[in-house]
Every structure is written in C-alpha cells, then in structure tokens.
Amino acid sequence: MKRVSLTQHLVEEQRLHNSIPAELRLLIEVVARACKTISHSVGKGALGDILGSADTENIQGEVQKKLDVISNEILLEANEWGGHLAAMASEEMESIHPIPNRYPMGEYMLLFDPLDGSSNIDVNVSIGTIFSVLKAPEGMGTPTEADFMQAGSMQVAAGYAVYGPQTMLVLTTGNGVNCFTLDREMGSWVLTQRHMMIPEATKEFAINMSNQRHWHAPVQRYVDELLAGSTGVRGKDFNMRWIASMVADVHRILNRGGIFMYPADTRDTSMPGKLRLMYEANPMAMIVEQAGGAATDGRTRILDIAPHKLHQRVPVFLGSKSEVERVSSYHAE
Ligand code: P6P
Description:
By secondary structure, the protein is α+β, with helices and mostly antiparallel strands. The chain has helices at about 5-15, 20-45, 65-80, 145-150, 215-230, 245-255, 275-290, 320-330; strands at about 55, 65, 85-90, 95-100, 110-115, 125-135, 155-165, 165-170, 175-185, 190-195, 205, 240, 260, 295, 315-320. An 8-stranded mixed sheet has the order 4-3-5-6-7-8-9-10, with helices on both faces.
C-alpha cells in the first residue's frame, strides 16, 4: 500500500466528502499527536515514574492511576491553545473544561476517556484513549455541561488509540473507518487499513462472565445459547475473549468480528451498566456503525440515546450486526 500519512488522508477526505473543515482537521491532528505522547509515556512502564496509583479519585469514585492523570493532562494541554475547541470533557474530570480565556474559542467540543482500561496498565496489557467530537451549539456563550448533551448521532468524528504491540489510531469522520499505525522511527501515523468492515456473523463473544449471576433474563438466555454451542439452538461453537480494555476488545471485533457486551445487571441502583455514554459508548458506536456493525443498549440504538448527564452510564452491546440484533430482540420480548 502506498504510504499515506494521517495529514494526507484528512486532506483527501476533505476533497472527497467535504466533511473535514480545516479546524476539524487541526483538532484530529492535535489529538493524534497527543496520543503519540501518551503512547510514549505508557511505553516507559517501570522505567518512568508513571506506574501505580495516584493518591486521588476521579468522579467515578475510581482510584486514578498515575497514567490516567498524566494522559488527561497531555490531552488538555495539547488542545487548549489551538483555537479549534470551545470546551473539553473527560472521564477524569467532574465538570467540563472550558478553553482558558487567554486562548481563542473554536467551534468544536472534545470528549475523551484519556486512558481506558487502566486496570491493565500495571500488568502490561493493551490500553487506549477514546475520543468523541461534537460541534458547539450555534450562538453558544460560555460553554456549560448542557451544551454537551447531544445524542451520539451528532458526533462529527470519533476515534481511539490502542497502545498494544503496535500503537494504532482508528478514526471515523462519518465516511467509513480507517486505521493508522504509528511509525515510531519517523514519529508519524501511517494509513494501514482503509474502510474497516466488521464481519456480519461471528463465533466470538466478549463479556465479563464473573457477573453472570447478576444478569437480567435476556442476557442470561443469549449467553446460555452461546455456551451451548453446537449442542444448542445456535448450532455452532463460540469462543470467548475478555481483555477488560474496551479499546482492545473493540479493535479485535473491528478486525475479525464478535460481540462486546457490558450489560446492566441486578446490582445497578443508580445507573445501568458500567460504561459511560458520552466518551466510551458513543464514539465506539459511531466507529462500529461506520464499519457496518451495530450498537445498542439492549433496546435503543446507542447513537439515538438523548443524554442527560455528562458521566451517565449505559448498557452496551456492540459488534457484528446479526449478533447485536439477536440479543437486542431478546430484550424486546
Ligand atoms: P470489568 C475499563 O475499566 C473499562 O471501563 C472498559 O475498558 C472495560 O471493557 C471494562 O471497564 C472492564 O470492566 O468489570 O471487566 O473490569
């Protein structure tokens, strides 16, 4: 494949689809550059003073890893000065982060989970950064949380970086999904997979089985049928994978199919499920749908959910279309 850089790809996408105005292209390139910096920090491991927990908690009440805080700071600092953003929001920050007055405000809003899969950091398992881009409402004054309350279908771009054996950036601006691999020698992102498409059918599922006794009936039924394999109604055997890094599980599904599930369960009191709508489910749902897959909360298309709180959680079923439709149909019965 002819070597195409991220910049060349974005310029060509703009020519083809007129979907990447200069400010959005700048935003994507700044985020991609920040992911390079995060990859470098992650790669240091024990050789840098970056492993282990910070002595702080985030809004989710989760103990923050040092790299959670470092990654969040990298994304904030990289995006503040460019003039392309009006505000940012992060899993690691309780409230939104308006652009400081000393910098010009732009027309986009960036949401991110700066380092997803933190429990895997200290044991050298793939982790990632997830990001979502919304347009600031017309005539918006000082940004507020309410300005971020837009359905996932309003996203103008979404992507993730996965820090694994290779560092990769997966990106969509609404015209398909493309994947870039970081050339560490040149420090540049190189297009390595065009128009990724998720296989319609699959033999692999991803779920944390230790929660099985807490699942509601539709999920119990669906997973029981997968486990019954060729001896049951599905008539074929299935395999299971659970990396406990959403980015890594989704990347596998983009490449070879599968269904990823983080359902609500009987323990949920305040909010259903574990994953957050605005900066995990929504960007991943846009990517998955752009790659021919499907993403629901069991009943509703993820991208149609009207958000009401920045850090709200949502059940997630995403991946190969036929499987997501099947498990969603069980919820409808
Ligand atoms: P569990 C990581 O903490 C995360 O938010 C997702 O990346 C991942 O899919 C999920 O939680 C893992 O959750 O309950 O299996 O540890």
